[in-house]
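Subject: mismatched residue count in predicted assembly?

I count 316 residues in my input, but I want to confirm that the predicted structure covers every chain. Input:
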Amino acid sequence: MTETTIQMTGTLEPRDSWTADACPMAHALDVVRNRSAFLVLREAFYGATRFEEFAARTGLSEPVTATRLRELTGAGLLEREPYQEPGQRTRRLYRLTEKGSDLLPAIVALMQWGDKWVLPGGARVEVRHHDCGAAVRAELRCEHGHAVGRDELELARR
Amino acid sequence: MTETTIQMTGTLEPRDSWTADACPMAHALDVVRNRSAFLVLREAFYGATRFEEFAARTGLSEPVTATRLRELTGAGLLEREPYQEPGQRTRRLYRLTEKGSDLLPAIVALMQWGDKWVLPGGARVEVRHHDCGAAVRAELRCEHGHAVGRDELELARR
DNA sequence: CCGTATCCACAACGATACTG
DNA sequence: CAGTATCGTTGTGGATACGG
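Triage response: the counts match. Full output below for your records.
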């Protein structure tokens, strides 16, 4: 098993390139390909479960909402669960799977980037730790517990 | 200043919805709208600086590469810097700005999600802490230093 | 209430050819 | 080497109307 290690500040030789099918981020973007998929997932994180909730809160049209829900369900990020309240007809609700909720760090990271760099008036959303109320951030940290800055990264492929 | 607090597990009333222009994540996705923009940024993180490097390593066509570089430069995520080696003609290179490199947590989060959920053979990319060699992960952590799990989140808008 | 079917407009992207 | 111009194909998404 060969392994190449590259410092972030360095440059790569062409032979170090990877094609699209070897890049995990490209694969992630193949599943959550478009803006509307992110919006649907955002609302799932916020607790939306029913079709109309997704359509209304994302601002997407119903056809687009239906397509994204179908795709995300097919990709295993959402699951469709039939449930029945006594005396009511059957309903279906969409819930995040573990695969779907595992995207939360990416979504929070995008949110905080938008807060910082795009929205003029500062943060319009806050994510807080339920236990202590402190603000939550997506950050890079190594397994030894060190916070990792941009200049302290090393990239390795194998 | 009104503020609503929602537990992740709960549901939102329709009036709690925000429109697209109030969502920081949607704004982030307006800037990094498409897959190719992420790929270009990925290569910038990996150290690419020249036009041909971006085109070759992302696998994008030259016109698309040129468009993305122009857009990302215009949005302030990359900066174009002319430089001149003695005796050579002027070249231009693209470098990440702070705004651009601030997207690193989101990119690493997408990479590790792809590693875990999409790629069959396990991780094909590793990000490590240069100081200690330990693997780096994008994770949610509150300002008191607690690691924050999926069920310990509270969302607040104001 | 929960979607689907159809249609249309525009954005994204690759291929090819060409310029400073 | 570093792009631009043009073209054709596919993807994305809204509008409208309709069905279970």
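The first helix of chain B runs from residue 24 to 31. Marking this ticket as 'not a bug'.
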